[in-house]
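Let us practice reading a record.
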Amino acid sequence: MAQQKPLRVVVTTRLFAPEVGAAAFRLKALVDGLVEQGADVTVITTKLPAGSPDLQVAYTLRRWPVLRDSGGYVRGYIQYLSFDIPAFFRLLATRADVVVSEPPPTTGIVVALSSLLLRRPYVYYAADIWTEALSAMSVPGAVKAAMRAVEGFVLRRAALVLAVSEPVAGKVAAFGVPGARIKVVGNGVDTTVFRPDAPSANAAKRYFVYTGTMSEWQGAGIFIEALGTVREEFPDAEIRFLGQGTDEDHLKDLAAALVPGAVHFGGVVPPEEAAAWIRGAAGALVSIKPGQGYDFAKPTKIYAAAACGTPVVFAGRGDGATLVTENELGLAAGYTTAAVASAMRTLLAEPGLSGPGQSEPGLAAAPDQGRAHRIQWALDNASLQASGRLAAGEVLLAGTTTSSP
């Protein structure tokens, strides 16, 4: 009997390792899982910034030039389309049994259309719902409506939608996607990088750290506003922002106006450096601005902090707050300056303890078993490698048992 050929899987993404970002890491974990399970994988992605060392991999990695913004990021519709339009023709010229698409929906639509023309299935990896994020941004209504229509088309035509959480799966279902075509595969971080037993960053003063994307819907300015109050009791307290995003300039202006010299912006750093800063922090800051349609999000920042043993200060409500309180990962505070400042003061006064402070309005009780508990929880529940293997298995199943709807 002839040996069965490995399934050919093409992954299409504007960001891929070694670029820094949750999407890049998640797709790398998926690809590693696919290769581990015997697939023949090709990744269609973007050319790295000049001078960046690439990966040495056991699969085909095809990079294409792309427009980047002034900070070197593929961010904004012109930049997205500079990847998506060539990707459409590259997909038409690439043989595959199944294609995987990562947001944004502009990439999803070129995968959907090319798959329709070539009559092959595709899988959409829904780490979030793109149009939910747009609702919190200053974007014209016509653009939001158009993007929602595109996202809905992409989701409904997919042979399978991978969701990183049950709340995201619920949002996908709201677009009319049958439940049988939605699989929850979880999310997490690389626990070989975000771990407790490696060096911490050297800092002269006590600090809180915010890592990753800074967008309007996250509303991280609440931490800068709170810091002024915190410094009345702890005058050496600082905040360090690591990452980038559309709200970065606003955050810098806010910091200069309210707490000059106390907030530092380090830009995008390698995961190992981010982990070192998290390990040395009094707390990791995570926020979701309430009422913007994004209360279902469970930011990866929470998992990264837990894996390093660092307590979280979560500002907001919804599923992220529930994740923090129910699993004793830190403090969940109402999205007010007073509540957030109280949570930050608690961690400065009693490092590693996240239970006290319940008497403050808006501060949720979160009795904590401490650092060891957070670390073990992350190992048990937030391994990106484990979710990548699970996602890979679902992709392979979709490629062998379905055809494009």
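A brief commentary: The CA atoms of residues 35 and 58 lie 8 Å apart.
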